Amino acid sequence: MQTNQLLNKGWYVVYTKPCHEKKVYEELLFRCYISYLPLIKKTSVWSDRRKVVEKPLFPSYVFVYLEHVSKYYEVLQIKGVVTFIRFCCQLARVKESEIETIKKLIANCSTLNLSSLNVTVGDKRTILSGPLAGFECEVISISKGNRKILVRIDSLKQNIIAEY
Questions:
Q1: Sign of the four-CA dihedral 64, 112, 125, 90
Q2: DSSP tally for the chain: helices H, then strands E
């Protein structure tokens, strides 16, 4: 890896072992890293019961704010961390505004789903009011009284479909 890629402070994406997101996130906090693990509530169904559990919105992803190249290597030493996410040999860097968008979506939307399809159908809009004011989104559909919007997180090549 060329270390000059990390000279810029910012949010990067750590890829974890399966089901290690919470452990990695807690260890990052313990080591005083600024980090973020978006969690959503999902209903898990077993043969004898149902339970609402918190699951990562992006499985195996944890966001970490790095201030210096040396922090990159320290994070790689954390148990459960596999690597940093890359696209075309470049580390995936997430904009602060995208982190804030994810936080607002989780706080204000009742249902969130991921879509990695590059959707081209539908109108592109800027939300004018409400908790997501100012964000670019794409309208997916209005069906059976449900309103859905699509917010594209470019640095992760993911779409979040929010139903509100």
A1: positive
A2: 3, 14
Amino acid at 15: Y
Of the pLDDT bands very low, low, confident and very high (cuts 50, 70, 90), residue 111 is confident
Q: Which residues contact 85 (CB under 8 A, 6 or more apart)?
A: 12, 13, 14, 15, 61, 91, 92, 156
Q: Where are the alpha helices (DSSP H) in the chain?
A: 21-30, 69-76, 96-108
Please give the pLDDT value at position 101. 86
Q: What is the mean pLDDT of residues 94-119?
A: 77
Domain of residue 62 covers: 3-94
Q: Check which CATH number belongs to the domain holding 55 and give it.
A: 3.30.70.940
The answer for residues whose C-beta is within 8 angstroms of residue 153's C-beta and 6 or more apart is 94, 98, 101, 102, 159, 160
Q: Which residue type does 105 have?
A: L
